[in-house]
């Protein structure tokens, strides 16, 4: 091959790679320490997502909304490519393409120190009133029992309000991620005043993997593929651990 043809071929490859670079626009919520517009790097999960996309030459833009709106915008608004972070649920696949896991979080219950709850199976929870956040996926079995009325659930619009209901004795337990609970009890002004009343229950519901939900379609399929490949180029556990250690 002549030098001019070689240079042309290299330029073509470079231009082809540049055209593959994209701006990915996702919705999320204020869910510290995983996501939040006021957090350093916008949170641990955003730091992971940005690193994975950057490894593939993409730029990530995240916009923050209340959870239900974040999900609905990702589903219906063509200006967004998806939302995160989400727990796995089979029904999500009706509208979204789920990425590979991008970290995990310990999901369980907050309880009152004065009234700790001992439970071994979900059936043991039937006698309690449990605070949940509207629109959140928890676990398939737990959510199924709530839907069937076997577990008495009381909804709140976010984790802070859910925990305040617990502190006020309006529920016996509040579903929450352990890292979220730890963060909110030190950073949320209202919760700081009642933090001494609360603790994390010793038994987990599940150590939940976190995912990005991409909008269905050819673009979503490509972005999911690129993101999954990007995850393989970074150390997800190190990014999450280092962030949470801060």
Describe the model.
The chain has 246 residues and is an alpha/beta fold. The protein folds into two domains: 18-103 and 210-245, Periplasmic binding protein-like II (D-Maltodextrin-Binding Protein, domain 2, 3-Layer(aba) Sandwich); 106-207, D-Maltodextrin-Binding Protein, domain 2. It is built from nine helices and eleven strands. The strands form two sheets. Strands 5, 6, 7, 8, 9 and 10 form a six-stranded mixed beta sheet that branches. It has a five-stranded mixed beta sheet with strand order 2-1-3-11-4, with helices on both faces.
Attribute tags:
246 residues; D-Maltodextrin-Binding Protein, domain 2; 6-stranded mixed sheet; 23% strand
Low-confidence stretches: 5-19
CATH superfamily heading of the largest domain: Periplasmic binding protein-like II
CATH fold topology of the largest domain: D-Maltodextrin-Binding Protein, domain 2
Order of helices and strands: HEHEHEEEEHEHEHHEEEHH
